[in-house]
Amino acid sequence: MARIYNFSAGPSMLPEEVLKQAAEEALDYRGSGMSVMEMSHRSKVYEGIIRKTEDLFRELMNIPSNYKVLFLQGGASLQFAMVPMNLLSKNGKADYVVTGNFSGKAYEEARLFGKEINLAATGKEEKFIRIPKQGELTLNPQADYVHICENNTIFGSKWKYIPDTGKVPLVADMSSCILSEPVDVSKYGIIYAGAQKNIAPAGVTVVIIRDGLLYAPLPGTPTMMNYSIMAENESMYNTPPCWSIYIAMLVLEWIKKQGGLSAIKTRNQEKAAILYDYLDSTDFYKTAIVKEDRSMMNVTFKTGNDDLDARFAKESAAAGMSNLKGHRSAGGMRASIYNAMPKAGVEKLVSFMKDFEKSK
Ligand SMILES: *Cc1c(COP(=O)(O)O)cnc(C)c1O
Hints:
This protein folds into two domains: 17-257, Type I PLP-dependent aspartate aminotransferase-like (Major domain) (Aspartate Aminotransferase, domain 2, 3-Layer(aba) Sandwich), CATH 3.40.640.10; 259-359, Alpha-Beta Complex (Aspartate Aminotransferase, domain 1). 35% of the residues lie in helices and 15% in strands. The chain has nine helices and 13 strands. It has helices at residues 16-24, 44-61, 75-87, 101-110, 227-232, 242-258, 260-281, 306-318, 343-359; strands at residues 5-6, 67-72, 93-98, 116-122, 146-149, 151-152, 157-158, 170-173, 190-194, 205-210, 298-301, 321-322, 333-336. A seven-stranded mixed β-sheet has the order 2-10-9-8-5-3-4, with helices on both faces. A two-stranded parallel sheet has the order 1-12. Strand 3 (93-98), helix 4 and strand 4 form a beta-alpha-beta unit. Helix 7 (260-281) runs parallel beside helix 9. It is globular, with a radius of gyration of 21 Å.
């Protein structure tokens, strides 16, 4: 058996310790005589797993007690609809900051439900190379919420400041940066994230929502998409994605063992610096994102020559590093270096990049 360094943007690498533990517990979860995959979600044992997962989220992210932690399905993409369906029932207005592909999709989805969905700023004309400054945001104080995508998985940029939205709740898609560093949850109305980047395998979507935002949704909102009902039932209105939540628990325990989110951030900064320092030292590869907005999780770069980029993807895969080809809408290369990517993987990549540069 040989594991390779997998730079996939998602689903992506999980910590090896977590995979080993899941394998060990696959036939008999801690004396229950069955796998978590086979277990009733109403059983005492499973109740223990889901509540432990919630407790670990609360502890590691320092989530205030006036927030609910929900485990839902449908991916981050379903949140693009659930957010407007649940929050627009007050004024029917929302502000969206479009900084890449996913925030653009979230904006389009909200337009299905609201009459005044305002584009607070867009980086489209600049090809999403940076995050807008506070002064560039056109915010409406009557909005029901402001939506941002905290880390732009495809283009490789990241909000480094929390925008001031006054009394208007801030909603953030953190799919590709959650658990990569500490966050001040109290500054957000809602934080949501699909699991398959930094939490667990695909299947569960985590929604952290302030109690005050649990109000009646737009008429016609399906039961399964109603935050209040999901919160009242503690994510157990129906069968939750049991397996994915269980792996999330193991990943959170792993993060705790690493020293928590501050320690994880230090490691992530070190890993990202290895790549960016090299990128800054050579003219062979270029990274388009302005320096102060660079993502620690998704590092994008190009040679400027499409044929060379294609050869890079092919030859790096042959050298044991998969999924380095950039997203089709951005081109070039992308190295996704989430929590589970070891430093040795990034070092191996940079060493390959140097050799590739020399050979051309
Ligand atoms: C991956 C990703 C999504 C899409 O997630 P799904 O779970 O596939 O719906 C949305 N937003 C961001 C920032 C992502 O990285």
